[in-house]
Write a structure and sequence with these properties.
It is a single chain. The strands form four sheets. A three-stranded antiparallel beta sheet has the order 5-6-7, covered by helices on one side. The chain has a three-stranded antiparallel beta sheet with strand order 8-9-10. It is α+β, with helices and mostly antiparallel strands and 283 residues long. A hairpin with a 2-residue loop joins strand 8 and strand 9. Helix 2 packs antiparallel against helix 3 and helix 4 packs parallel to helix 8. It has one domain. It is 32% helix and 23% strand. The chain is built from eight helices and ten strands. It is globular and about 50 Å long. It holds the Pfam family XendoU. Belongs to the ENDOU family. It catalyses: ribonucleotidyl-uridine-RNA = a 5'-end dephospho-uridine-RNA + a 3'-end 2',3'-cyclophospho-ribonucleotide-RNA.
Length: 283
C-alpha cells in the first residue's frame, strides 16, 4: 500500500469509528439479497434475480435524527433527467445550507475538516469551509451532452439521475434507495458479483447491485448501506480533495475498498462511490 493510501486509510478508519449515527445491520435495518442480478443485455422480467424488495426492515426513527432529516429534505429538490435544467429555489438553497450546518457539527465532519486544514486543502474558518463544500457538492454544472446546468455532485451521487430516460446514472445512496423502493419506484434486481468480487453479506455495509428506477436501469451500482449521510459526505469530500479523478484504495473495519472519485472541471464532484475489493478478516 502506498503511503498516501495508508494515511487516508487511517483517516477513513477514524471517520468510521466516529460515525455515531451509523445503523446496525440486523437490528436497525435488514436487507434481503436474494439472487444474483442477470445479464443487463438481456433485460427482461425473466432476468430479475430478486422477487422481493432489497430492504425488509428499516427503523425509521433513525430518520428523525438531525442530519438524516436534513439530508432527506434535499432528495426531492431535483429533476432526474440530465438535460433538464435545474432550477434552485431559495427554499432549496436554504435546505442545502441547513444540511451543511447539521453535518459540520458531527464528529466525522469535524475529523475530516481538521485533516483537510492540516493538509492545506480546506480553509480553517467554518464558514469558508462550508462555502467550499457548497461549491464541490451543490453548485450546478452541465453534464455531458447538455448546454445548461442540469446536474450537481450531490444530485448525481446521492439522488440519482437518468440519461435518455433509459439509463440511471449516479444514485449511490442507500437512504434514497430505501425511500424510492418504499414508494414503488425501485425494482431491486439482485446483487452484482464478478469473478474477483467477494460474495455480498447482508450484515456488511457495502453492496454492489442492479436495480431499475422509474423507467431506467442501473446495470451495476455500488453503495454503502446503513452509514450516516455525514460519513459518506466526509469520506467523499476527503477523497475528492486529496486525490480527485482517481481510484483511491482504503482499508478500514472489515473492508478493502476502492473509492472511485471523478471531478468535473477540477471544481465539482462528477461522481464518487465505493467498490468493494475484499473483506478483511479482522475487525
Amino acid at each position: 500500500m502506498i503511503e498516501s493510501d495508508r494515511e487516508l486509510s487511517a483517516m477513513v478508519q477514524e471517520l468510521w469509528d466516529n460515525d455515531i449515527n451509523r445503523l446496525k445491520p440486523g437490528k436497525d435495518y435488514r436487507i434481503s439479497l436474494q439472487g444474483k442480478a442477470g445479464d443487463v443485455m438481456a433485460l427482461n422480467d425473466d432476468n430479475d434475480g430478486a422477487g422481493y424488495p432489497l430492504f425488509t426492515y428499516v427503523d425509521e426513527n433513525i430518520f428523525k435524527k438531525e442530519t438524516f432529516l436534513a439530508f432527506i429534505s434535499l432528495l426531492d429538490n431535483y429533476e432526474s433527467d440530465t438535460g433538464e435544467p435545474e432550477i434552485v429555489t431559495p427554499e432549496e438553497e436554504a435546505e442545502n445550507h441547513k444540511f451543511l450546518d447539521s453535518i459540520i457539527q458531527t464528529p466525522t465532519m469535524k475529523i475530516a475538516h481538521k485533516y483537510l486544514v492540516e493538509k492545506h486543502l480546506s480553509p480553517e474558518d467554518e464558514t469558508d469551509f462550508k462555502e467550499q463544500l457548497y461549491r464541490i457538492w451543490f453548485e450546478l454544472y452541465a453534464r455531458r451532452g447538455s448546454s445548461r446546468p442540469d446536474s450537481s455532485g450531490f444530485e448525481h451521487v446521492f439522488v440519482g439521475e437518468t440519461r435518455g430516460g433509459r439509463t440511471v446514472i449516479g444514485f449511490h445512496n442507500w437512504i434514497q434507495l430505501y425511500l424510492q423502493e418504499k414508494l414503488g419506484h425501485i425494482d431491486y434486481k439482485g446483487y452484482s458479483v464478478n469473478a474477483n468480487s467477494p460474495q455480498p453479506d447482508e450484515n456488511k455495509h457495502i453492496l454492489a447491485l442492479q436495480f431499475s428506477w422509474k423507467n431506467g436501469i442501473k446495470p451495476k451500482g455500488s453503495i454503502f448501506i446503513g452509514v450516516s449521510p455525514e460519513f459518506e459526505f466526509a469520506l467523499y469530500t476527503l477523497c475528492f480533495l486529496t486525490s480527485p479523478n482517481e481510484r483511491v484504495k482504503v482499508q478500514f473495519s472489515f473492508y478493502d475498498v476502492e473509492i472511485v472519485c471523478h471531478h468535473y472541471n477540477q471544481k465539482h464532484i462528477g461522481t464518487t462511490y465505493p467498490v468493494l475489493v475484499k473483506y478483511q478478516n479482522h475487525e
